[in-house]
Design goal:
Number of helices of chain B: 15
Shape of chain B: elongated
Largest sheet of chain A: 9 strands, antiparallel
Radius of gyration of chain A: 25 Å
Largest sheet of chain B: 5 strands, mixed
Oligomer: heterodimer
Number of strands of chain B: 13
Helix content of chain B: 40-55%
Radius of gyration of chain B: 26 Å
Structural class of chain B: alpha+beta
Distance between the termini of chain B: 27 Å
Shape of chain A: elongated
Strand order of the largest sheet of chain A: 14-11-12-13-26-25-24-18-22
């Protein structure tokens, strides 16, 4: 192999595939990046067996070839080089590559690309096209609700359903559920559904970045892998076996009270109260008030033997308000959802102190977040 | 509130096998192998068959009785389902055995739902979801509720309003009180103590003679006084995880990694049980089998993996600094939990079925 490319491009490509390179593994070759040539492009691939990321950069290919070399070493070296043309040549004995850039050079020992695990290919099945920023938004709004401990492995995944022109992404741990519904760019004829590890989908979101090229994804006919095409980056992820719980049945069909508040106010009140909630099992008590001064949410917390606090924010209240228009949540669950919702109006719906609360955002009609309350003595 | 199945095993069998319905049946071991009756249907009880009676005696009393072998796996599953139904009504459920539990419904009553409503709703839910009947007792304390559920079986509902405890208890035979078994009751009858009232009116000296240190408690419950709370979780002293190493090591990096992994295991158990502890403990067994334990108490209760790992690693590294020993076993544990009372004051609710 003999190719040359720009330092900047190579550095960026290494950063992208580096997300999939295994940092610790029983299989040393997984700490390597595979470099090969294809149609006048330089192709880089990293995998930790859960996901594989491949990207292509423009290069001048003198002779074709492929090799794997330690990813960390290569990217550290390339990142330190000046922004100029890098010449890469593979050496057969000992198996290695030489890199030259201006007056810097290096030799890095490599391994036979045959040892590198084959990356699953997905060339059958319907291709689904989604707006990249919508998909990124979906991932941000859903993935954090997935379980992180794997006492129920299926809950560490995100359920994806695609039906004609709509998609639904849903994640839940035992205590909260996030669902995002959106439109595909082009309708598809077959419905499909799968469960993808939340971590893999978070990588997809990260790879989209500020990109504006439509993201395309495909699932293998056997339902074992999904492939996402993001510009000139491809990510292949294992899919998860098992069946996801019926999340739709967890979404309350109605509410007793709804309050519309500015998220900036609500987030601040939750953050303030969380300072005291830290010591008291994270309990935030929320009381809905509707009196002559208008609607309000009162958020309070207390820490035994330390102190307590209360904050109040204005809101538009719907439904009959009484003593029972109150609910308690773990501050973390509330803070995390408000955090992803960003600026704008938030709707907060409750039914009773022991039934789930719902958080939605104006302008994000497809998004529903359900949180189970904490049972507390009032 | 106390909820209790009526002839649990037998009722499950009659539910699952229609041919057994309306017939005297008993669940238990075979008569030829000196089995005993584990559960007798109400039809067989008419013949005087009771639980714990030798199977041969039961068959003598009623030769038509059908003897069914127990299916404990099924009973356990039904029990799990019914506890779920109970938890639909209130998260504060204290299971006593497979087929009975205390439910604290104080907050529902405070919300203006009447006790008969709660109890009927529960009975109806159990019937519609499981096809089984329960007897329910509602009262201001656990001990009175349990007695109330037992006096009107099967499919009973007895409500003892606050203030009505003494009129309710006094005429009942002493055997209804928990803690009075056949031997004690025989003794009491010799002293002409037959009803709860007889017992309640005894001077403490006599009661102490019979019940020893338990006398005060007996005196209280015979007057309907019982302040024990419904305990949703039996208190656990500590939760820990330990591992024996394949090869003894003194390698700090390896040991750190194991401590992190064990912290994760402990966190998982804590999370499942919704518990938090204040004390993190590290246990190390050296190659010479001497055991060292180090513990640290933190101001905030810990539950998640990183919160446990931090003090555990600190203890480990402190230990490693002053030692060149090799270690063969490592354990990480958390104790100093919130008391059970605190636990039921605050509880993160879960989605049903997730």
């Amino acid at each position: 192999m003999h190719v040359s490319c720009l330092q900047q491009n190579l550095s960026r490509a290494l950063a992208i595939v580096g997300r999939a390179v295994a940092t610790r593994s029983n299989l040393p070759v997984l700490q390597n990046v595979k470099i090969s040539t294809e149609d006048g492009m330089l192709v880089l691939t990293g995998t930790n067996l859960d996901i594989a990321i491949t990207t292509r950069i423009g290069a001048q290919v003198e002779t074709e070839g492929e090799i794997t070399i330690p990813a960390r070493l290569l990217s550290d070296f390339v990142n330190s080089l000046p922004d100029d043309r890098i010449e890469i040549k593979s050496v057969v004995e000992p198996l290695s590559v030489s890199l030259d850039c201006q007056r810097f050079s290096a030799n890095i020992n490599g391994t036979d690309p045959e040892e590198f695990p084959p990356i699953p290919t997905v060339d059958e099945g319907a291709t689904i096209k989604v707006d990249p920023q919508l998909l990124k938004d979906t991932v941000t709004h859903v993935a954090f609700a997935a379980a992180t401990e794997d006492s129920r492995p299926v809950l560490t995944g995100i359920k994806v359903e695609v039906n004609q022109s709509d998609f639904t992404f849903a994640a839940a741990d035992g205590f909260r559920l996030a669902v995002y519904e959106g439109k595909l760019l082009e309708p598809i004829s077959e419905a499909m559904e799968f469960i993808i590890p939340a971590k893999a989908l978070q990588e997809v979101g990260r790879l989209i970045g500020t990109g504006d090229t439509a993201v395309e994804f495909t699932v293998t006919p056997a339902g074992t892998h999904a492939l996402f095409n993001i510009g000139n980056v491809e990510i292949v992820s294992q899919l998860m076996p098992g069946s996801f719980p019926n999340f739709r049945s967890l979404i309350p069909a109605e509410y007793k009270n709804r309050v519309i508040v500015q998220n900036s106010d609500f987030s601040r009140a939750v953050k303030t109260s969380s300072i005291f909630a830290r010591d008291g099992s994270g309990i935030l008590r929320i009381q809905i008030v509707n009196d002559e001064d208008g609607g309000k949410l009162s958020i309070s917390s207390r820490a035994e033997e330390v102190g307590d606090n209360q904050g109040e924010i204005d809101g538009v209240v719907e439904g009959d308000v009484d003593e029972e228009s109150r609910i308690a949540f773990n501050n973390k669950y509330l803070a995390e959802v408000l955090d992803v919702l960003g600026e704008g109006e938030v709707s907060f719906e409750i039914t009773s102190a022991s039934s789930p609360g719902v958080v939605r955002a104006t302008g994000k009609e497809g998004y529903t977040h359900v949180v189970m309350p904490m049972f507390v003595q009032w | 509130m106390h909820a209790d199945f009526d002839a649990f095993y037998a009722a499950v069998e009659q539910r699952d096998f229609p041919e057994l319905r309306n017939r005297p049946i008993v669940v238990g071991g075979s008569p030829s192998r000196r089995g005993v009756v584990a559960s007798a249907s109400y039809e067989s009880r008419k013949f005087g068959i009771k639980s714990a009676m030798p199977m041969s005696t039961a068959l003598k009393k009623c030769p038509e009785t059908v003897v069914v072998s127990p299916r404990f796996v099924v009973y356990r599953e039904v029990s799990r389902q019914v506890m779920e139904v109970f938890r639909d009504i209130t998260p504060l459920v204290e299971p006593l055995s497979l087929d009975e539990a205390y439910l604290d419904v104080t907050h529902l009553i405070a919300n203006n739902i009447s006790p008969p409503q709660i109890a009927r709703n529960l009975k109806q839910k159990v019937w519609s979801k499981l096809g089984l009947t329960i007897s329910v007792g509602v009262a201001s304390s656990k001990s009175v509720a349990k007695i109330a559920s037992s006096i009107n079986k099967p499919d009973g509902l007895t409500i003892v309003r606050p203030g009505g405890e003494i009129p309710f208890l006094y005429p009942l035979p002493v055997e209804v009180l928990w803690g009075i078994g056949p031997k004690t009751s025989a003794k009491l009858h010799l002293l002409s103590i037959d009803t709860v009232q007889d017992l309640a009116s005894q001077p403490m000296e006599i009661l102490s003679g019979i019940f020893g240190s338990n006398a005060t408690h007996i005196k209280e419950i015979s007057n309907g006084i019982d302040t024990t709370a419904v305990i949703t979780q039996r208190e656990r002293k500590s939760i820990s995880s330990e591992t024996t190493l394949l090869v003894d090591t003194s390698d700090a990096e390896d040991l750190n990694e194991i401590v992190m992994r064990l912290s994760g295991d402990v966190a998982e158990s804590l999370l499942k049980k919704n518990m938090r502890g204040r004390t993190v403990k590290l246990k190390l067994k050296r190659s010479d089998f001497t055991v060292v334990t180090r513990q640290k108490t933190i101001s905030e209760k810990v539950q998640i993996s990183s919160e446990i790992a931090e003090p555990a690693l600190e203890l480990l590294n402190l230990e490693l600094e002053n030692s060149h020993e090799k270690y063969r076993l490592i354990g990480v544990g958390v104790s100093g939990f919130a008391t059970s009372e605190n636990l039921q004051d605050e509880m993160q609710l879960r989605f049903e079925g997730l």
